[in-house]
Backbone:
């Protein structure tokens, strides 16, 4: 077992597994509603709930009182309610795992979807659905995980349990300054990291030397970016690439080494594609009264392209498609083309309401500053005019210092 459990360089927090067990033993009150901005305290409450069998509800710390009420929760319960608990003293990792085994079959964890394009949905998961994608192996004993997701969302929970159930060390990277993350990766000899493409783009300008320690880089939460992968691999030549498809509603479903996902034999009766949209059978979903089903099938809102009967690749979210004068525009297609220019760090294409065409396209550009803004805009326009129809070309270009992101590290497209 690794000696350390949770390391947060920003907070200068270093917790060993024995510290975790002691902190759990010292807890006399449990927050069934976890509404905190301290990453370690969030994790501590989750694990206290798990080993005591108490249901936990994770509430993103940046939600306002009004937003908490809007998702159907009582603010006073969320902010102030505490429950007396008496947790056993745990001395070893084996004892800790034994307590998990006792409670895992009836323990529940409630989380909320990111609500990137609307109201968050409340979804109740079991230990089984949360750990569906977790792999345990003695060969994983020395893994060190870079934790680059919000710990109150599904992707963060996946990494927590993948590391925890293999007694690994977790180094908290979410909310860290992107400029120092390459040094953190080297200093703590992180071997595995899972993050959104947006996260990797933010650290890319600060990668100035190679790293041969990192063994695996996982992408998730957004459309796979082949150009970004090629750039990242130059700095991490020994790292294997994985692409994960998961959602708050269904958990982890697919894994691939590139943009193509394969529907396995065991999943073929639980997954289908209808009008280019991915549908998931209710058997794979967490419980939620807010999930609408059609004949036991859930429409994910993810548009995909079938390669053959059992393979597909993600194209865009259905609600990301922008209507420009009656034409449907996929912003990812335009972003991918713009990112081919060497000076571009990141870009997000959005729709802005327009009385004539319904929407016009606006491109927010983050670049390295090597060119004059006017010259950069000319290069982008020439590139797009050579590759796209007129309605796919943004009418407004805004240079930004940073591409805004949600609390789940995805591009903000509202």
Residues:
């Amino acid at each position: 077992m690794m000696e350390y459990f949770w390391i947060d360089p920003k907070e200068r927090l270093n917790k060993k597994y024995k510290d975790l067990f002691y902190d759990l033993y010292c807890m006399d009150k449990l927050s069934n509603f976890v509404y905190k901005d301290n990453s370690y305290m969030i994790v501590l409450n989750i694990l206290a709930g798990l080993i005591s069998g108490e249901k936990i509800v994770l509430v993103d710390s940046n939600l306002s009182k009004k937003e908490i009420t809007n998702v159907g929760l009582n603010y006073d319960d969320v902010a102030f309610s505490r429950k007396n608990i008496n947790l056993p003293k745990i001395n070893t990792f084996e004892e800790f795992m034994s307590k998990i085994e006792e409670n895992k079959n009836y323990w529940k964890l409630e989380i909320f979807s990111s609500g990137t394009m609307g109201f968050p949905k409340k979804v109740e998961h079991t230990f089984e659905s949360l750990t569906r994608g977790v792999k345990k192996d003695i060969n994983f004993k020395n893994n060190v995980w870079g934790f680059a997701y919000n710990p109150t969302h599904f992707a963060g929970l996946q990494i927590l349990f993948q590391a925890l159930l293999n007694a690994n060390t977790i180094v908290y990277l979410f909310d860290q300054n992107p400029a120092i993350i390459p040094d953190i990766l080297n200093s703590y000899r992180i071997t595995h990291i899972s993050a959104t493409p947006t996260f990797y783009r933010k650290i890319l300008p600060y990668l100035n030397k190679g790293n041969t320690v990192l063994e695996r880089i996982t992408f998730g939460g957004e459309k796979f970016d082949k150009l970004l992968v090629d750039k990242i691999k130059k700095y991490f030549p020994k790292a294997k690439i994985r692409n994960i498809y998961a959602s708050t509603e269904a958990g982890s479903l697919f894994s691939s080494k590139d943009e193509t996902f394969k529907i396995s034999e065991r999943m073929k009766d639980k997954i289908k594609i209808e009008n280019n949209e991915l549908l998931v059978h209710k058997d794979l979903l967490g419980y939620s009264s807010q999930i609408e089903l059609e004949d036991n099938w859930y429409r994910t809102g993810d548009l995909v392209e079938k390669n053959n009967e059992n393979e597909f690749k993600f194209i865009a979210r259905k609600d990301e498609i922008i209507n420009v004068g009656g034409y449907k525009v996929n912003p990812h297609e335009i972003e991918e083309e713009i990112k081919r220019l060497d000076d571009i760090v990141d870009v997000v294409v959005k729709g802005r309401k327009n009385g004539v065409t319904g929407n016009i396209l606006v491109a927010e550009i983050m670049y390295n500053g090597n060119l004059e803004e006017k010259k950069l805009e000319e290069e982008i326009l020439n590139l797009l005019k050579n590759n796209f129809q007129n309605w796919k070309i943004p009418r407004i270009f805004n240079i930004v210092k940073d591409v805004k992101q949600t609390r789940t590290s995805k591009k903000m497209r509202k």
